[in-house]
């Protein structure tokens, strides 16, 4: 199946832990993104990579670090997790912005 | 900067009712406009798009027309179904000016049988 796939789908962890979320797309898109969706469904962009290069880095804590080993993968590593990090994180990719984004199904992170 | 405003939800309708979800935008250039839908527990899916003024995007019975004069891109459907219950996001993209996707806050639609 052609898609954007994220793992894990659910992640429950304790405060202070370090965790990673993986994202892979097989659509041949050049650009990948990470979005955070809060409990009110508001979407906020976090990072954008184009051909493995960081092009957008919004104001997020430096505990969040994206890693793009190749243009088909964009992983998100989070250090020292806090309660406020609880949200749904979406990966997305695009061929060009006029074509719209293809989203993954999301990772629901719960920090306890 | 660019922005997108949507009508506040939740919107609750009976099956077969007519749906309108208003969306207006602010942009310095000529953006492309999109509607995305998020079903419960899922990611966002592109529903329809329009890339220039007066274009009409349509899909699954939904449609929206790019109105430059009113800077609007309202989503409509003539007869909603229970399966249309979801959160709908209006979005714009203005790449020539380096603007990334801008999403509206989302409008939750509940359709009752």
Distance between the termini of chain A: 34 Å
Distance between the termini of chain B: 41 Å
β-strand number of chain B: 12
What is the largest interface, and how many residues per chain?
A-B, 20 and 21 residues
> In angstroms, what is the radius of gyration of chain A?
13 Å
- Multimeric state: heterodimer
Number of helices of chain A: 0
Mean pLDDT of chain A: 90
Mean of all residue-level pLDDT scores of chain B: 92
Shape of chain A: globular
Structural class from helices and strands of chain A? Answer: mainly beta
**How many separate helices of chain B?**
0
In one word, what is the shape of chain B? globular
Unreliable residue stretches of chain B:
none
Succession of helices and strands of chain A: EEEEEEEEEEE
Helical fraction of chain A equals under 10%
Strand content of chain B: over 45%
Q: What structural class results from the helix and strand content of chain B?
A: mainly beta
Number of strands of chain A: 11
What would you note in describing this structure?
The complex is a heterodimer of chains A (112) and B (113). With 112 residues, chain A is mainly β. In chain A, 0% of the residues lie in helices and 56% in strands. Chain A is globular. In chain B, strands 2, 5, 6, 10, 11 and 12 form a six-stranded mixed β-sheet that branches. In chain B, strands 3-9-8-7 form a four-stranded antiparallel β-sheet, with no helix packed on it. Chain B starts with a strand and ends with a strand. The model of chain B has no long low-confidence stretch (mean pLDDT 92). Chains A and B meet through strand 5 and strand 10 of A and strand 5, strand 6, strand 10 and strand 11 of B.
């Amino acid at each position: 199946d052609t898609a954007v796939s994220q793992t894990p789908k659910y992640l429950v962890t304790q405060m202070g832990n370090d965790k990673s979320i993986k994202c892979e797309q097989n659509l041949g898109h050049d650009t990948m993104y990470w979005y955070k969706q809060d409990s009110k469904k508001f979407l906020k962009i976090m990072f954008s990579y184009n051909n493995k290069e960081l092009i957008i880095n919004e104001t997020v804590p430096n505990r969040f670090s994206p890693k793009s080993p190749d243009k088909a993968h964009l992983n998100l590593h989070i250090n020292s997790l806090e309660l406020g990090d609880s949200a749904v994180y979406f990966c997305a990719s695009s061929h060009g912005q006029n074509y719209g984004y293809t989203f993954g199904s999301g990772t629901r992170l719960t920090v306890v | 900067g660019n922005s997108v405003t949507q009508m506040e939800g939740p919107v609750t309708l009976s099956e077969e009712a007519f749906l309108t979800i208003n969306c207006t935008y602010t942009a310095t250039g000529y953006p492309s406009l999109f509607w995305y839908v998020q079903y419960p527990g899922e990611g966002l899916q592109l529903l329809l798009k329009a890339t220039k003024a007066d274009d009409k995007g349509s899909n699954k019975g939904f449609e929206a027309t790019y109105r430059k004069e009113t800077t609007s891109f309202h989503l409509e459907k003539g007869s909603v179904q229970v399966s249309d219950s979801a959160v709908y996001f209006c979005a714009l993209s203005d790449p020539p000016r380096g603007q990334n996707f801008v999403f509206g806050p989302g409008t939750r639609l509940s359709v009752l049988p």
